[in-house]
Amino acid sequence: MVRQRWSHLLFFIVLAGFGLRAFVAPQARFSGHQRHMIGEDPVGRLKVYVYDIPSTFNKKVVQRDMRCLSHMFAVEIHMHLYLLSSSVRTLDPDEADWFYTPIYTNCDLTVTGLPFINNMPRMMRSAINYISTRWPYWNRTDGADHFFVVPHDFGACFHFQESEATARGIYPLLQRATLLQTFGQIGHSCLKNGSVVIPPYVSPRKVFNHTLSVDTPRSIFAYFRGVFHDMNETPNGDRYARGVREAIWENFKDNDLFDISSEHPITYYEDMQRSIFCLCPLGWAPWSPRLVEAVVFGCIPVIIADDIVLPFRDVIPWDDFAVFVPEKEVDNLEDILTSISESEVKKKQRILSDPQIKQTLLFPRQSVPGDGFHQVMNALARKLPHETSIYLKYGQPSALNWSAGNASDFIPWQL
Ligand SMILES: *[C@@H]1O[C@H](CO)[C@@H](O)[C@H](O)[C@H]1NC(C)=O
Ligand SMILES: *[C@@H]1O[C@H](CO)[C@@H](O)[C@H](O)[C@H]1NC(C)=O
Ligand SMILES: *[C@@H]1O[C@H](CO)[C@@H](O)[C@H](O)[C@H]1NC(C)=O
Ligand SMILES: *[C@@H]1O[C@H](CO)[C@@H](O)[C@H](O)[C@H]1NC(C)=O
Ligand SMILES: *[C@@H]1O[C@H](CO)[C@@H](O)[C@H](O)[C@H]1NC(C)=O
Known about the structure:
Structural class: alpha/beta
Bound molecules: 2-acetamido-2-deoxy-beta-D-glucopyranose
Order of helices and strands: HHEHHEEHHEHEEHEHEHEHEHEHHHH
């Protein structure tokens, strides 16, 4: 029954491609509050000082491995490039609201392209040592007016598996800093109060290269490409995706409405533009680049990651265009998706078609109004002015534990 209703709808959507387009108003319907914030210009609202630190923390790491310019953790690099030429930058640290340390902790890669997690805290520690001994600003607040981009799986917990990440905790020297991170989960110890949840990096150039015409029919009902099982699962502890991806595979591998596979086709981006729903289940962490890709390709994201904190959630109307499925309901995915009415689907697609929403999730080489960089700067501006209590009193000792950490973290970072 249900399936039949959907086959009608698919047919309708295919046929109605042209007619519908006339009604795809660029002014999507979401609350005025969010609409106002989404386009705010950060210039004049904050000043950021960019520390000049040795290129072994940034430029030289990239030169050694260019893959990190475009992988999902690349915001740490593009944020630096943006800030160097941004109008929010100040060359006078005495007038800065925020201090930024350009450090690429995710750019030291294994042969398979994954960041070396054990080197991240070491690199971070060396950089903080560097800035805190050469400038007076870190010690003034224990880093409370400093921000860091920490785009790894569990942010500044620097591990990809939840139990390990939780055991490590947020790196001790970052206890007071503001963290810009892709990891977001309500109440999690790797998401500190005051952090800014940002989107992972998806290459705008690649998106542009693979964009199809807007009237491309959406003939795939639900789409997913990615791993269902991970070899790093530990027998007694971490289960990959808390079993959600495995359940998706077991339940729907033979279901015609679900186009799912672990093979990554070269038409991946095109396929998303031919799909109505794009499944975005958690992996090791709740977030993934699929969230960004689904939105930029107008495919309704089906978010299966309990307690996820989505990027820029006070600005982007996620509730209006995404579908949220509790992890324990994953077996009912077909019923849940097929019972969403046609008008609801069209409403979500209309909101997703708003270029302004897509722009919030991208970090283009040349910054444009409303893009991810502007959202980050606006989020930092909204945290101003700093409370006077962040400044340590004269003679007050640092509250940070400079001797905490794995012994290997104390080896100075070098290439
Ligand atoms: C300390 O770091 C080393 C290498 O960086 C790693 O092998 C070891 O597991 C770490 N120990 C702890 C307790 O995290
Ligand atoms: C900041 O504090 C650290 C540790 O207490 C100290 O080693 C360093 O010299 C201080 N920096 C400055 C610029 O005084
Ligand atoms: C988080 O920080 C904000 C201010 O930045 C504060 O108003 C709020 O009470 C804090 N929440 C918790 C749970 O500490
Ligand atoms: C985009 O397409 C251009 C021209 O075909 C090509 O040179 C470039 O490498 C592509 N970029 C990406 C990121 O795919
Ligand atoms: C600082 O960290 C060290 C090493 O983990 C620990 O032994 C010590 O108790 C900590 N100090 C404080 C004040 O928490």
